[in-house]
Amino acid sequence: MIYYFSATGNSKHVANRLAEALNESVTPVLEVLNLGIKVDDRMILVYPNYCGGVPSVIREFLQKNIFQISKDAKLILVITYGNNTGASSSIATKYFKKNTGRTFDAMYSVKMPDNWTPVFDLTNAEEVAETNAKADEEIDGIIRKIKIGVDGDHVGDKLGKFMEVVYPGFYKTLSKTSHLHVEDTCIGCGLCAKNCPVNAIEMKDGKPTWTKKNCAMCLGCLHRCPKFAIQYDDKTKDHGQYLHPDS
Predict the structure, then answer these.
(1) Can you tell me the distance from the alpha carbon of 65 to that of 143, in angstroms, rounded to the nearest whole number?
(2) pTM of the model
(3) How far apart are CA 40 and CA 222, in angstroms?
(4) CA–CA dist 97, 169 (Å, integer)
């Protein structure tokens, strides 16, 4: 079984590629939060690096789910990232080990376009397409390694112990919904509220309102808005929107 979390399609694309090549089924993490999960053969978890760590949805998945894992089951982690993987793999491993007593047998990473547009500019379509083409080559390599049973840590571009220390406060600060606002171009379609993974948006008087102090800060609302009416402070307007072509 492959479980994934994805806001703009990168990790979903990876999960689907792996599923097709490895004859596995795919389930969004959001569908199985706080449920019992039985792993007899193989579990692959795919998610994006957030703030050098893990998205709040993945943290909840690893900490709160009841896992029943057979002793021979293969556990695999695949992280998508744009700039670096930070301490995402080590943080996930600690959450998982504390809950289950197990660690991941193999860990991989795939460099893809970074949807954190408060920093990264995704307006160059050619560069974005080139990054995604290279990512598919990396995915092919991961598939080959999984098929022959390669174990070990193959996660690249880490920042390690430093990010383990700063990640909690860093993520908490950047994920404050006070950073988000909606412009007058909003047409009240409600896609942002419908797709929010943590139900932090409600439609009031035809406009989105953030009802929680913090959210996952996946920026799915910003990138999926048909009018690009949702912005993060004053840092995203000129950096474009992004959805993976297969999302």
Answers:
(1) 27
(2) 0.96
(3) 39
(4) 22
CATH number of the domain at 2-171, out of 3.60.15, 3.40.50, 2.60.120, 3.40.1130? 3.40.50
Collapsed DSSP state (helix, strand, coil) of residue 203? strand
Domain ranges of the chain: 2-171, 177-232
Question: Tens of pLDDT along the chain (247 residues)?
Answer: 999 999 999 999 999 999 999 999 999 999 999 889 999 999 999 999 999 999 999 999 999 999 999 999 999 999 999 999 999 999 999 999 999 999 999 999 999 999 999 999 999 999 999 999 999 999 999 999 999 999 999 998 888 778 889 999 999 999 999 999 999 999 999 999 999 999 999 999 999 999 999 999 999 999 999 999 999 999 999 999 999 999 8
Residue among 162, 19, 145 at smallest CA distance from 87: 162
The CATH architecture assigned to 177-232 reads: 2-Layer Sandwich (3.30)
The answer to whether residues 241 and 222 touch, using CB atoms and an 8 Å cutoff, is yes
